[in-house]
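Take a sample.
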Amino acid sequence: MKTKRILFALLLSIGLFATSCSSDDNDGETIVPIQGKYNLSQTGTIVNGQEVLIDAPQNAAGCNRDYLDLRVSNAAVIGDYNGSNCALVETTGTYVRSHNDLTLTIGTTSSTSDIMNLTNKELKIKDKTTGIITVYTR
């Protein structure tokens, strides 16, 4: 009798565990927060089904890397170092994340990208219009 109770409890536990692991409507969505400062690392595109990435030419030689700062307030700040003195120019706008889409609005220009990868160390996005892939690192 004791064996039957243990077996019943074990089967009940497995049943409860299996039903608690159902899928939801966030398939493929990462739970890593998107807020943070990301340094521009690589850009590229997909050629013949393969990602082709190069070091970001936007980063001026001898300067800090350009960056994207996504703040908790939904403000987006783009930092661009350029010129012989590596002058920093910051442009501010907003961003909205909806599932695995990221929409950046700077002035009157908006662009929407697929979030291809989001980890504690990397944000990789692909522009939905141009197909350009941009990789940022923390």
Notes: The helical segments are 2-20. The CA atoms of residues 57 and 119 lie 23 Å apart. Confidence is low (pLDDT under 50) at residues 1-26. The domain at 32-137 is CATH 2.40.128.280 (Lipocalin).
